[in-house]
Every structure is written in structure tokens, then in C-alpha cells.
Write a structure and sequence with these properties.
Structural class: mainly alpha
Shape: elongated
Distance between the termini: 13 Å
Number of strands: 0
Radius of gyration: 27 Å
Strand content: under 5%
Order of helices and strands: HHHHHHHHHHHHHHHHH
Mean pLDDT: 81
CATH superfamily of the largest domain: Formate dehydrogenase/DMSO reductase domain
Number of domains: 2
CATH class of the largest domain: Mainly Alpha
Largest sheet: none
Low-confidence stretches: 1-8
């Protein structure tokens, strides 16, 4: 009988492989990381100068005390909340195809929350005084202070996403099915929490009675609508980049679903902006002065006018492009539209929301705000730091989602070798699909699978027959189901109207899902049985 070496890998080997994946790559990866590191270091240097010299090096002052840092914070809270747009179809509607793709959105949420926390930290001016808010040391002022609510929901959301992603990736590494009770309650809680983080952030603004520009009941819905535009748009760009790089182990369904979300939310966001403008300007409400300054300037002050009209133009053009039915077939144009609306929302929800709340001041003085070079350096450094974290997290996650891990070992070296061979063929098909050559690679994959099915299934069934494995008949039925799927694809290839690229996508998804489920459950079961036979 074949040698049995079944074991479950521990945490230390997992961390070692994660570190290896995170730091290994080609010239493009190292160039990207070098660029981001340089930008981040420039930001760190600028922040150190700000700590030493004080907030006088920024454009902020007594009249405008929130600027670029808080604008960035507000925007990236929405980006973090947008992960829920992938969680809902995957878990509430049991869309199995979306399960792995959700990791991309949740890892983005982790990185975005870190960017938010760093943005608040640099806005403190004296970060050493942060201890004043620590429970038990300073005065947390919960539940009276909305700021403490924001601290709770942001850190709670970070913890939820870190646990969900960490546990799912750890389970994939070990080759075991994740226990629903250890992650599903947190998934459903994260859906509510995602809405809460942006709602509480909106309440921070509209709860300030002395700033009439923010005193609107529509602020929280506007925050959520804009979040569900910018966040999914960024995730689409990430998925398209991964697709281009050949590191994309998912089908096209996540991109199509997110595009449908953005098509609706982009229009809702524009509608809400129009409603705000009409209500304030036509009725002459108390925050009309700030809105007039933002859109048309006031008393010779026009600093934010180009920003806001640029944001409106970008969002309108992008919303029009999203409605074009052929956009999904034009990845470059789709990415351009997503980046346009991402930048547009960043301006509208950042500089277009935070700064006008202070202009004119409560004493009706016109003191404009323009970010200083120091602020730009620090902000870009923070964003670069977030991108570094997100890149490293993706480098760890994607190989675990699409490749062989020691946790998938069934304890029989001959069977493990054949499983690794099938993973290699699967990854070759993925690369071919993403480069537009899936139709060509499909023939080679089908030829390989015909040979593989005959050899591997026969070897595996003989091994189980010789060992007297009680689940042999069920195992044979599993093999027969996979063979039937191959025959279905083969029959599709025979049709003159066959979309070979679509068939390649279908084969890729069925191979990946079947292989992971089959190894994790059925093959590991016979591995345990064979090991017990030898004991």
C-alpha cells in the first residue's frame, strides 16, 4: 500500500508561506513596491516635520480646522464599507461563485480602514495625546460622544474583516472546510457594521448644529450611496488588474455584478446631489451660503469651484458610460469609467463636503483653505501605505485561493502528485483565459483531462478497493459526476456556435470548485481511513 503521511499543517508553516508569498514576485511587483515605499517614506518624513513644527505647516487654522486629512478619512470609510456589496450576494443569496471573490473586497476593507485610522492620527497634530481617549486611562466619553462611537465602529469593522479573511484563508491552507459557526455570524454582523461605520461618520457631521452646511437628514443616505459607487468601482479596477496580470482565479461574474451595482448607485448619488442643491439654492436654506461658495464662489473666493465642477463632470460622464451595454466588453474603458467616478466621489465627498462646512465661518468670515505641500505628501504617503498593505494581503490570499497548499494533502504521495498536476493545469487555463487565449488552451486542457480522468480515477479507485474503503461507491459517483461535466463541455465544443472562451470559463470554475470540494471532503476522508488502517 502507498505510504501514508496525513497531517494538518500548523500556524508557523502557514505564516512562513504567507511571508514567502507576500515577498516573492517578478520585476513588476518589485518596481511597484519600490515606488509605493518611496512615496510612503516621503509621507513619513513630511509627518515627522509636521510633528516637530506643528500644524502651522498645513493650510488649516482656526477658521478651517478640518482639511485634506479628514476629507481622506471620510472618503475611505465609504470605500471600506463597500465590501458589503460583495458579501451580500455571496452569503445572503448563497452565490458560491462569489465566495472566494469576496476576499478581494474584504481585504480592501482592511486596508481602507487602516488608511482611515492613519488619516485621523496625522490630523491630531499631537498624536502623543491620543491616550486621552483610551478607556481606563483617559476619558472615553462613551456613549455621549459621537467620536467614541466612530472609534468603536471603525475598529470593530477592522477586527471583523481581519477575522473573517484570516479564518477563511487559514482553513484553505489547512485543506479543511471552514466551520460556519466560526465565521458566518461575523459575516452577517459585518453587513450591519458596514452600514453603521458610514452612518456614524455622517452623524459626526450633521450633529454639529453650528455648521448648517452639514445639517441635513440626507447626509447619511448620501454617504452610503457614494460609498456604494466608489468602493465597488475600485474593486472592479482591482479585479481587472488581476485579470490582466493573470493572477485572477475567479470568473467574470464578480465584475458583472459590481457593474450592475454601480450602474444604479451612480445615478442615485447624482440624484441626491441634485436634490440637495435644489433644496438649498431654491428655498434659500441656511446652508445655501456654503453651497453657493462651493459651486459658484463668493466675494471673490473661488478655490473650491474647479474641484466641485470637475467632480460633477467626472461623475456624470462615468454614470453615462456605466449605462452603455457594451462597456463590460471593453475592460480598458470600464476601468477608466471606474477611476473617473472614484476620483469624482473623492472630490465630492472629501474637499467638496468637509471644507465648505467651515466657509463662511460662524462669524460669516470668508477664509479659504488650500492644502499645503506637507498635507499632500502625508496624504499620498498614507494612501501608498494602504496600497502596500493591500498588495501584500492579495499576494498572500490569491495563491491560497487558486493553488495547491499542504493542507490539501490526502496523505498518499501518488494521489497528491496527481492533484498538484491538476492544479497546475487549472492555473495554466486561468492564465490563458485572462490573456484571451482560453479557447486555444481549452483543447489542451480537455486532452489532458481525458488522460487524467482515466489514470487518476482508476488509480484512486484501485487504491480504495484494495484497502476495502467503505465509501468507495460514493467516491465512484463523484468521479462519474466530474466525467459527465467534462462530456458536457466536450459536447458544447462540437457545436459550430460554441463560445469557446465561455466554455473555458465554465470548465475553469467547475474544475476549481469540484477539485477543492472533492479533496477537502472525500479524498481527505479516505486519507484518514488509510492512516487508521496502518495504525
Amino acid at each position: 500500500m502507498a505510504a501514508i503521511a496525513l497531517h494538518r499543517p500548523g500556524l508557523l508553516p502557514f505564516l512562513r508561506q504567507a511571508f514567502g508569498h507576500a515577498t516573492d514576485g517578478g520585476p513588476l511587483f518589485y518596481a511597484w513596491m519600490t515606488l509605493l515605499t518611496c512615496i510612503a517614506l516621503v509621507g513619513v518624513n513630511a509627518w515627522a516635520n509636521q510633528v516637530v513644527s506643528g500644524m502651522q505647516v498645513t493650510g488649516m487654522g482656526d477658521h478651517v480646522s478640518w482639511g485634506l486629512y479628514i476629507s481622506n478619512f471620510t472618503f475611505f470609510v465609504g470605500v471600506a464599507a463597500a465590501a458589503v456589496m460583495m458579501v451580500i450576494p455571496a452569503y445572503l443569496y448563497h452565490d458560491h461563485e462569489m465566495h472566494d471573490a469576496v476576499i478581494v473586497g474584504e481585504l480592501l476593507a482592511i486596508s481602507a480602514i487602516i488608511v482611515c485610522l492613519l488619516s485621523v492620527t496625522v490630523d491630531l497634530g499631537r498624536p502623543d495625546r491620543f491616550w486621552h481617549m483610551m478607556p481606563g486611562i483617559g476619558r472615553f466619553n462613551w456613549p455621549i460622544s459621537l467620536l467614541t462611537w466612530d472609534v468603536i465602529v471603525l475598529n470593530g469593522y477592522l477586527g471583523l474583516n481581519a477575522w473573517i479573511c484570516g479564518y477563511l484563508l487559514w482553513s484553505r491552507w489547512r485543506g479543511t472546510a471552514p466551520s460556519p459557526r466560526l465565521y458566518l455570524p461575523f459575516v452577517f454582523l459585518s453587513i450591519i457594521w458596514a452600514v453603521s461605520i458610514h452612518t456614524v461618520t455622517a452623524f459626526l457631521y450633521c450633529g454639529l448644529g453650528g455648521r448648517p452646511f452639514w445639517n441635513t437628514a440626507l447626509l447619511a443616505p448620501r454617504f452610503l450611496a457614494s460609498a456604494f459607487v466608489a468602493g465597488p468601482a475600485l474593486i472592479i479596477v482591482v479585479l481587472l488588474v488581476l485579470q490582466r496580470l493573470g493572477s485572477y482565479p475567479f470568473g467574470d461574474k464578480p465584475v458583472r455584478l459590481l457593474l450592475r451595482v454601480v450602474q444604479i448607485t451612480a445615478l442615485i448619488n447624482l440624484f441626491m446631489l441634485a436634490v440637495e442643491c435644489f433644496t438649498a439654492l431654491y428655498a434659500g436654506s441656511t446652508h445655501a451660503a456654503s453651497l453657493r461658495y462651493l459651486l459658484f464662489g463668493a466675494h471673490g473666493h473661488y478655490a473650491l469651484v474647479p474641484w466641485m465642477w470637475s467632480a460633477i463632470a467626472l461623475n456624470v460622464v462615468a454614470a453615462g458610460l456605466f449605462l452603455w451595454p457594451g462597456l463590460i466588453r471593453r475592460p480598458a474603458l470600464l476601468a477608466t469609467a471606474c477611476l473617473m467616478t472614484f476620483v469624482g466621489i473623492w472630490i465630492e465627498k472629501g474637499m467638496g463636503l468637509v471644507v465648505p462646512g467651515f466657509i463662511p465661518s460662524t462669524l460669516h468670515e470668508m477664509v479659504e483653505y488650500v492644502p499645503s505641500l506637507t498635507e499632500w505628501k502625508i496624504t499620498l504617503g498614507i494612501v501608498a501605505g494602504g496600497l502596500i498593505i493591500y498588495t501584500l494581503l492579495l499576494k498572500i490570499a490569491l495563491p491560497l485561493l487558486s493553488g495547491w497548499t499542504p493542507g490539501l494533502s490526502v496523505g498518499v504521495e501518488a494521489m497528491d502528485a496527481q492533484h498538484r498536476q491538476l492544479f497546475d493545469r487549472l492555473n495554466a487555463l486561468v492564465v490563458a483565459i485572462r490573456s484571451g487565449c482560453g479557447a486555444t488552451e481549452l483543447d489542451r486542457t480537455m486532452d489532458f483531462l481525458d488522460s487524467y480522468v482515466r489514470e487518476h480515477f482508476a488509480d484512486e479507485e484501485k487504491l480504495l478497493t484494495d484497502a476495502g474503503y467503505p465509501g468507495l461507491e460514493g467516491h465512484r459517483r463523484m468521479h462519474a459526476g466530474f466525467t459527465a461535466e467534462l462530456e458536457s463541455v466536450r459536447a458544447g465544443l462540437a457545436s459550430p456556435q460554441a463560445d469557446r472562451q465561455d466554455l473555458a470559463e465554465r470548465l475553469h470554475l467547475s474544475m476549481r470548485d469540484w477539485l477543492l470540494r472533492h479533496i477537502q471532503v472525500e479524498d481527505r476522508a479516505y486519507g484518514v481511513f488509510l492512516k487508521q488502517r496502518l495504525c
